[in-house]
Amino acid sequence: xxxxxxxxxxxxxxxxxxxxxxxxxxxxxxxAALLELTGIxxxxxxxxxxxxxxxNVELVINKGEFVSISGPSGSGKSTLLAILGLLDxxxxxxxxxxxxxxxxxxxxxxxxxxxxxxxxxxxxxxLIGDLTVEExxxxxxxxxxxxxxxxKRRVGEALDGVRxxxxxxxxxxxxxxxxxxxxxxxxxxxxxxLILLADEPTGNLDxxxxxxxxxxxxxxxxxxxxxxxxxHNEDYARKATRVVHLFDGRVVEDRRG
Length: 257
Ligand code: ADP
Hints:
The chain is an alpha/beta fold. It has helices at 14-19, 77-84, 107-117, 133-143, 148-161, 177-190, 207-222, 234-238, and strands at residues 33-46, 49-62, 66-70, 92-97, 100-101, 118-122, 195-199, 226-230, 242-247, 250-256.
């Protein structure tokens, strides 16, 4: 069973844990590989046209990294995030998440892994309009079969963490864009995921609200969360500890800062 808390050690196999480069410094433990993409290819077939969205992507993301993914439109960023989030499957290559080969997951295990181990934050917030703020945050925990008392505690903590506790009974339409994205962040973190995947989380926000959401992500990273964020904003990309640049479905730059 996978650990679901970012601060817990994931059940990574010995071979995959040692395949990642060790962090520098004598007192630092070797980095644990959490997400491992090996020779990933993704093609889409539409009518007579085959589009290659990803070509031979090699990427190992370690526990605790904050990775920003950038690249021009059509370079494969969303496709990569969808594969990392178990929302789509590669056409070739291997994707291992916390030591488990994604190709070997049956649909039930795949859905459970997605629900328990991955938190998603989308550009368009994706809150459910006729559920209140607290119901939105609670929903993924309900799918998980979590007892009501624990759900309530986690929802309260997550909303307080993004300073939205005072709006728990509001509907999304009664909130500003910045507030809606803070609720979406609370929904993503309430389940203590192993990894947070954010697809242009500040894309629909003005700079003040964008900065606030970035501050939340930085706080979560400081507490040990692993984050993978697609962004077009160079200032926000610089806040990550690693920058991966895609072009034409390939990783053309991979830099730790
Ligand atoms: P980005 O997120 O960097 O803009 P995408 O991952 O969305 O890039 O797309 C990469 C390439 O794959 C593009 O050429 C896009 O048109 C194509 N693509 C993405 N999704 C599909 C799909 N469902 N069907 C056909 N082509 C797709």
